C-alpha cells in the first residue's frame, strides 16, 4: 500500500450503498468491476479485492426507492490500482465487455469512470508517482485532459482476472449543498487540508495526497439531503491511525454540534450535507 493510505494519515475506506436490485448489482461488481463476494445474504453483500478487507458493501432495504432528482450524496467512490499495468488490464477488460465508460488524465492520476446499474458513480484509477505531482503554494495541480489510452494499453497484455489484491479505496467524491460549509467541516473538524479547487469543487487530503475527499455543488447549491431509503450512499468510512486520533475527532465533532452516534459497528457522524460517515481505526477496522 502507498504511504498516502496508511498511518499516520487519516484516509477513507469501505463504502456502504443502498441498492434496489441486489443480485444484478452484485453481478455487475463481480463481472465488470472485478470485486469478489466476501459474504452474502438475501439483502446484503460484502465485496472485496483481497479476500480480507471489505471495499464495497451493498444493502437492499425493503422500502428502497430508485436514485432520482437533485440531492447531496455520492458523486463517485474511487478504487486505486497499484500500477499502470493494472489499469491497462482493466481498460482492456472494459473495452472487451463493451461496458460504457469515461476517461481522463488528471496530471496526478489516470482514471476511468463507470456508472453501476443503480446509477452510482465509480472511478478506477492509478496514481502517477508523487514525485511527478506539481505543487505550488500548498496546492496540487490537477486538470481533466484526454487519457492516453493507447499508452496505457501498452503497459500490459496480461489477461483480466478481476481487480488485483492490492486495490484500495483511494478517495471519495461527494455532492453537497453548501461548498464552504462542507469545506469548513472537513478542514476544521476532521482536519483534512484543502489542496486544490476546481469550479464548484474542493479537494482535501492528509499527508500531502492529491485528495482523499472531494466535495462539489455540481447538483446545484442547496441540493437537499436525499430520502433515507433512496438508492445511493448509506455511509462511507474515515479511517484513523489509532483510537486517540479517532477520539480527538469525536471530541471536535461534538464540540461543533455534529451528530455522533455509537452503534454496534462503530461510531457514526454526518457531514453538513447529510453524508453519513463511519469512524473506524486502521488495523482493527472495528
Descriptive notes:
The radius of gyration is 18 Å and the shape is globular. The longest helix is centred in the N-terminal third of the chain and has 14 residues. By secondary structure, it is α+β, with helices and mostly antiparallel strands.
List the SSEs and their pairings.
Elements (H helix, E strand, L loop, with lengths): L10 E8 L3 H12 L2 E5 L3 E5 L5 E6 L13 E8 L3 H14 L4 E4 L3 E7 L5 E7 L7 E2 L2 E2 L8 H5 L14 E8 L3 H11 L3 E6 L2 E5 L7 E4 L15 E9 L2 H14 L4 E3 L2 E5 L5 E6 L5
Parallel strand pairs: 1-4, 5-8, 11-14, 15-18
Antiparallel strand pairs: 1-15, 2-3, 3-4, 5-11, 6-7, 7-8, 9-10, 12-13, 13-14, 16-17, 17-18
Question: What descriptive keywords fit this protein?
Answer:
single chain, 286 residues, alpha+beta, 2,3-Dihydroxybiphenyl 1,2-Dioxygenase, domain 1, 8-stranded mixed beta sheet, 5 helices, 18 strands, 20% helix, globular, Glyoxalase
Give a brief outline of the structure.
The chain contains 5 helices and 18 strands. By secondary structure, it is α+β, with helices and mostly antiparallel strands. The longest helix is centred in the N-terminal third of the chain and has 14 residues.
Amino acid at each position: 500500500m502507498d504511504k498516502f493510505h496508511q498511518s499516520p494519515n487519516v484516509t477513507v475506506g469501505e463504502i456502504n450503498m443502498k441498492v434496489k436490485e441486489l443480485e444484478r448489482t452484485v453481478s455487475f461488481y463481480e463481472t465488470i468491476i472485478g470485486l469478489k463476494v466476501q459474504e452474502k445474504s438475501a439483502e446484503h453483500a460484502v465485496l472485496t479485492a483481497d479476500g480480507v478487507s471489505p471495499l464495497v458493501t451493498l444493502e437492499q432495504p425493503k422500502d428502497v426507492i430508485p436514485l432520482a432528482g437533485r440531492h447531496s450524496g455520492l458523486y463517485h467512490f474511487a478504487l486505486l490500482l497499484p500500477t499502470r499495468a493494472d489499469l491497462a488490464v482493466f481498460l482492456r477488460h472494459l473495452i472487451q465487455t463493451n461496458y460504457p465508460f469515461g476517461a481522463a488524465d488528471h496530471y496526478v492520476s489516470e482514471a476511468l469512470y463507470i456508472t453501476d446499474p443503480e446509477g452510482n458513480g465509480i472511478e478506477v484509477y492509478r496514481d502517477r508517482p508523487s514525485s511527478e505531482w506539481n505543487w505550488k503554494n500548498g496546492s496540487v495541480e490537477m486538470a481533466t485532459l484526454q487519457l492516453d489510452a493507447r499508452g496505457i494499453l501498452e503497459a500490459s497484455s496480461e489477461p483480466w482476472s478481476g481487480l488485483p489484491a492490492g486495490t484500495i479505496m483511494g478517495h471519495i467524491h461527494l455532492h453537497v449543498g453548501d461548498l464552504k460549509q462542507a469545506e469548513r467541516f472537513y478542514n476544521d473538524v476532521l482536519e483534512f487540508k484543502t489542496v486544490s479547487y476546481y469550479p464548484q469543487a474542493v479537494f482535501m487530503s492528509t499527508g500531502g495526497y492529491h485528495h482523499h475527499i472531494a466535495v462539489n455543488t455540481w447538483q446545484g447549491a442547496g441540493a437537499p439531503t436525499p430520502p433515507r431509503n433512496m438508492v445511493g450512499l448509506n455511509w462511507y468510512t474515515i479511517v484513523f491511525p489509532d483510537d486517540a486520533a479517532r477520539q480527538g475527532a469525536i471530541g471536535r465533532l461534538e464540540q461543533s454540534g455534529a451528530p455522533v452516534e455509537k452503534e454496534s459497528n462503530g461510531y457514526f457522524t454526518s457531514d453538513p450535507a447529510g453524508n453519513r460517515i463511519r469512524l473506524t481505526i486502521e488495523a482493527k477496522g472495528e
